[in-house]
Amino acid sequence: MGIGVRARGIVATACLLTAMGCTEAADAPSDAGQSTTAVTVAPESSAASTAASTTAPDTGSDTASTAAETDSTGAVESTVAAPTGEPFVIGVVNTEGAPGLDFPEFTTAFEAAAEHINRDLGGFKGRPVQLQPCIAKGSPESSQACAQELAEQQVDLVMLGIDIFVAYPTYAAAGIPVIGAVPVLPTDYTADAVFITAGNLVVQGSTANAITSPDYLGLKRVAVITNDSAQLASALGVLTPALEKGGATVTVVTGGQTETDAGYLSLMQEAADSDPEAIVSLYGETGCVALMRARRDLGITAPVFSNTSCLSKRVTDAAGDAAIGWYFAGATGEDNPDDDVVRRYVSEITGGDPADVDLNGFTTVGWGELISIWASADSLDGEVSGPAIIEAFRAGRGTQLGNGDPAPCGQVEAYKSVCTFSIPFAQFTAPGAAPAFGGEMISAVELLPA
Amino acid sequence: MTPYVAALFAGIGAGAVRALALGVVTTFRGSGVVNFSHGAIATWTAYVFWDLRTNVSYPFPFPGPWDAYSFGSDVRMTLVSATVLSLLTAGLLNAVIYLLVFRSLRSAPSLARVVAGVGVLLYVQAMITVRFEAASVRLSPVLPHGVIKVTNRILLAVDAVWLVAILAALAALLWLLSRYTRIGLAIRAASESEKGAALLGFDPDRLGLWCWVAAGLLAGLVGVIAAPMFELTPLLFTELLIPALGAALIARFTSFGIAGVAGLAIGMAQAVVSPLQRDLSWIPRHGARDGLVFITIAIAMAVVGKRLPTRGSLETGRLATVSRRPAPRWITSVLVAAVLLAFATLPSTWGSALLTSVIFTGLALSLVVLTGFTGQISLAQAAIAGIAGFSLSRLTMRFDVPFPVAPVLAALVAAAFGVLVGVPALRVRGVNLAVVTLAGGIAVQEFVFKNPDFVGDVSTGGAKVPPPKLFGLDLGLQSATSVYRPQFGLFVTVVVALLGIAVSNLHRSATGRRMLAVRSNENAAAAVGINAAATKLLSFGLSSFIAGVAGTLVAYRFGSISDASFNLFASLTLLAFAYLGGITSVAGAAIAGLLAADGIGFKAMSAGWSRAGIDFGRWELVVGAVGLVITAVRYPQGIAGVGAGLRSRLGRQPAERGAAGPR
User: Which residue of A has its CA nearest to B152?
Assistant: First the structure.
């Protein structure tokens, strides 16, 4: 069990990609929901210990396992010395305040996780972590300005929330390592960086594997419902060849970026016309409820694969039993014991009620990102530094998202920034989300273009 | 055939929402303004409705210490109460927008109204972002819903039928009002001749106000009853407005019936594209859904354009005068030298802001040629610049074309696209041309920017661009060890300065004089033997070449390029800032660069606020939008125009005869 980073973890990308303006559920669920995603950082350690659960077991560090004890309400009693000395400065770039591109949850989560690390986990090898935020505004200019600002401040490491136009050349020239949450644009996959979550590339590859491989469903007629956006065109460019490589025939049904419920009904109907054995929906959260209802109303029994944005509580509450039969790439379908800690620290930042913290959004992605960086830092033998942390990731000493195994960063040369090539799937059943395929992590590597 | 019929039926709801066009037509008839914020008003109203129904609170549409008024937990907000409050909000908002912004711009150049409209759009969208963040919400249905099974395969959404019926009734009502009521006839009269209406005793101001209120109510109604058919997102109705503008254009901004029918037809046609793509291999895989519609609109307007109306107003809004004499060379030289020096000495963050300003100046120069000299409006300039950026990536990464051949070729590709987008200009003018070029720009975005063969994909790492190198000299912004190399700033400055000199020389050349003649009066120009059509196309080509060069500079700066940099909003803000700077002169383009978001002026202002202890944080866009609107209202001739006027008054430079600008 580990730190649960759920819902739109991996597939925050897909959500972003839907309209280049990801949307967040406004009716933030107070319930944690049922699923965790592949952004999960920690391995199988004590459920009672947040710190332990955020530390890879094979990294040689057991400091954190005794660092803090968590009671059932999420209150943490720290048993480690407070960090001292020169702060470890992490530059944070996140997009906020632009219409359709506003992700303040990341900033909140980073602040909360930093507080947790400093207060309960002993900082970064005894050094307090300090965040140096910079807000990008969804333009290349603002992203580059942030990069130059952080380079001038000589931060130790840069951590990205959502930064659409990451200024990689600037960071490279400054010698500042970059660790991101979600690869968004094609350039991100080949960048000199590390991305904690998989992005559309792995989601589509793993989905194709789950559908076509005889080890899983072994289905060979697939309909894909997508929208006519540049970003989903890119996702489709991965998914269709992957499905075909797996031996499937593919029918693509293209809708608009904005559809009415009737429009979604028509798309599902058109997909059904090809008599598919499985359907993949590339729509983000905005299309989930309508497509779920459409499938149910049309009596379609073929399973539908989507991303975790369709598993938010808001969606499943609205869809009800229409969600049954849907698979969610990147979700584990299990509860997470560390939610209370996340709720507590996040609510301290926001000043709200812990019960109101939305664990289905980017909050948990951001939290998991910083905690996983901390875990990598904690695994270091020598002095902690940005380059050392990223080297730890690249050397496979980072934690793979979802199961805590060593993260195979750069396993596929063509996508060298990606550290996650296997993701879990959840399936929605009558009681709710449950692990699919026996909870197995399904690889994308076999079906990705070389 | 059945899949096509099914798709057509499925598109009814989406098509009916394009009846946002009714509000666009209403606003245009009342005030001559193409209201780009109409969709944003609908979105705001829908969020107000949601907030009232869900949280029993009313969000305030202006900055302040209070986010919303809470009615209290014991209050129950009924559907009727929430609807009435929401509609009142929409009507009131539009009234305020008209009174504060557009009333004073009635006699301003149509471009000033476009710019103010962009400012209002940005303001409303920014307020939505501040108040609701990126909230995606699902509203409870307002209209009866469910599905009618026409056949097993053909389904009809009940709410879509209701929406069509309601909007058809509204269109009919608007038609009746405009045809058979005194005020309706007065509005029609004023839309043809404000002077005539005024002579008959009607107050065009008041007529305009009523039209804006009516349009607000229409927007609000669409927001409240149509939002439940979608997921409500911050950009929902702004995105839906774009095809609605096409419908309004088809309706020549005058006919409610045609606008409604055209909107419906567009929605239904878009729904049919998917089965068509399946059956007809020649239809592009990407971008066809919107692209086909907009390219059809652009072509149709190029064919029927001459019948598009222009509005008669009390005063003829003119663009700022074009100075006969360029700025003295020593001033230009000093300015360029100062910029070069700044690049060599400023720290990287300031240098980066200066880069933004200089490149934006290049983009604005393209509009100086097109709009300032020739009087043509284009809302496709950013898309054209993007064409060059992607072409550069293709030429350098795939064909290894070296610098500087590659950027020149890329700019020529952009010029070719620019000429294509400009073809409708042979038949349409003013705001109509703006909307047609907007359609052309969207067609470019859809067919080109969505095509992975052109813009790259994951397998190619997107659209990368290597740094420019000339005879072994690296002119790139960054090296392996330096985050900021002044060489790139110097290179960019030299390129933009050359563009500026070229534009200045063009102004004094015979070609420039032909452009000015066309801007002033096409018929008179033709009478003296000027080929107006060729001059316009030449202007589109030249300005697109300049935009293309600037687009390549953007690509070189970032080392890669993305379509998100060149979308519709980018075109709108480019035009807005170019106009505010002063669209008739090179100096105006430089001022536009100074004002540009993330430019040097912007950074200086931010630093100033910061020193004063003021951090706008999430309000930054709101503050910026308010500033844009105020500047547009205060200086409808552009800032450089104000400077020219001052010089004229001071007697240093004889007053120039103004050339009639696009209206």
Answer: A298
Two structure tokens written together for A75: 């209150």
Looking at the complex, report in whole angstroms how far the Cα of residue B218 sits from the nearest Cα belonging to chain A.
Answer: 19
Peptide bond into B404 cis (omega under 30): yes
> A263: distance to nearest CA of chain B, Å?
5
State how far the Cα of B127 lies from the Cα of B45, in Å rounded to an integer. 12
Angstrom CA distances, B152 to A259, A297, B9, B146, stand at 22, 12, 13, 15
* DSSP notation for B178-208: HHHSHHHHHHHHHHH-HHHHHHTT--HHHHH
Contact B389, B570 (CB under 8 A): no
Q: Which of A392, A445, A343, A328 is nearest to A124 (CA)?
A: A392
Q: What are the pLDDT digits (tens) for A37-83? A: 333 332 223 323 333 333 333 333 333 433 455 554 555 555 678 88
Q: Compute CA distances B594 → A145, B558, B587, whole Å.
A: 16, 20, 11
Taking CB atoms and an 8 Å limit, are B564 and A138 in contact across chains? yes
Alpha-carbon gap, residue A7 to A315, rounded angstroms = 11
Enter the ipTM: 0.77
pLDDT of residue A234: 77
Q: Tokens 């060059």 sit at which residue? A: B388
A189 and B129: CB-CB below 8 Å? Answer: no
* Contacting residues of A for B479, CB less than 8 Å apart: 173
A179: tokens are 């660790």
Q: Distance between CA atoms of B105 and B635, rounded to whole angstroms?
A: 10
Q: What's the rounded Cα separation, in Å, for the pair A84 and A255?
A: 55
A270–B6 CB contact, under 8 Å: yes
State pTM to two decimals. Answer: 0.82
Contact: A172, B277; criterion CB under 8 Å: no
Contact A254 B289 (CB under 8 A): yes
